[in-house]
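1st attempt posting a full record on here, be nice pls
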Amino acid sequence: MRGISPWIAMLSHTSTNAPFCGGSLIGDKWIVTAAHCLHHQLEEENAVLTEEDLFTPSSFNIILGKHRTFITDDTEQVLQAKHLILHPKYKTSTFQNDIALVELSRKAYLHDYVIPVCLPEVEVQPDNFVMVSGWGKQFLKKRPAALMEIEIPVVEFDVCNAGYLSLGRVLTEDMLCAGFKEGGKDACSGDSGGPMVTFNHQTKNWYLAGVVSWGVGCGETDKYGVYSNVYKNVDWIKNKKYNILASESENDSRLGDADLIG
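the predicted structure (as tokens):
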């Protein structure tokens, strides 16, 4: 159904138009996504991420109001990135702090199919049901014809961690998990960076609880999907937005003064 996730953004390569990640609109000029969505794959697992590894803002588009995967919708708008901001403590080898911000080059036009999602005011709790959406591959096979959405429960941190210990993977405190023990419903390849949202019946608002980060396979038993915990990063998100907006406002003021003097 069109408009099921009006805050979702599709990230697609400008050279091929191929979608590769998702994101979530917060406000009218910012996208929250996964940090690993914004850089080239590193040759060595523990390699240090450098500026040269990052995508350039012009190398991908951010598409809002999109529903069908490969067909243009009359509700969509194609935007470009202005700034890419990865979490300073992001680790490529473990996906710790796998969260990033993209500042859009211009404000998005908001309408029924393009609506920002709220930043969380409280942390989502185990057994709460959340909605996850994206254009990722279905069970690692092929992309769907249109945006998909699943409803799954948040899982206790220790339960999720235990499922990955046998594989030598350790969860960090900035991660949260969701899914069913028996599997079946899960984010998959291509969903990275996309939204995990929860609905507050008192405020009647949707909140961004998590960002699709990583997992093993798709929908496998005891292998829950792992998400970056947005609540743990709310202060970082707000500070980055405020600092950049304040800086731009100061620069605009200086330009204005110069114009008046000139």
